[in-house]
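Note to self: keep these together.
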Amino acid sequence: MNRLLIVLLTLVNFALLYPGVTLAIYSVEITTLVEAEIIADPVEVTVYQQTRSILSTISELWRSADYLVSFLILVFSIIVPVTKGSMLLASIFVAGETVKKWLVLLVDLIGKWSMADVFVVGVLLAFLATRDQVQENLFTVPILLRQVEIGMETHLTSTLGPGFYYFLGYCLFSIFWTQVLKRRGAA
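Structure:
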């Protein structure tokens, strides 16, 4: 296999990984619609809104003293993929067959422990569990010697961001590309 083609396709992996870790992977928004007899029109209030990338999640977890979780996400979603890609690139340029085979074997071993695919599945499951949840509440509150009925409808909405799709692309392409290089012995 042509070295230039291998380098270009390996760089595609990095091109998918970078936006995968820097762009938003998900957004969550909680809004509440409040209706009451004493309010002319319903009022919608955004109670919570958050958009996170993998990098901002790592940073936020670190700031909130969740060091282990922050470190694990950093290792398995950034350090391992960058190390794996760098080793693939290095394996292309080494002269000795023994070193080349060792690097490819190590990349394959690292790939089994990268957990990037598990991370993607976790984000997808979190998204599916929180996408379009609605809770309605109806209650009365005493206001100026009378009972006022108040209705609240709370919506929890989550959306996947472009970072999720880039990271998913990275995971799929990385698995495919590692297998191609391993089978062809080109790395």
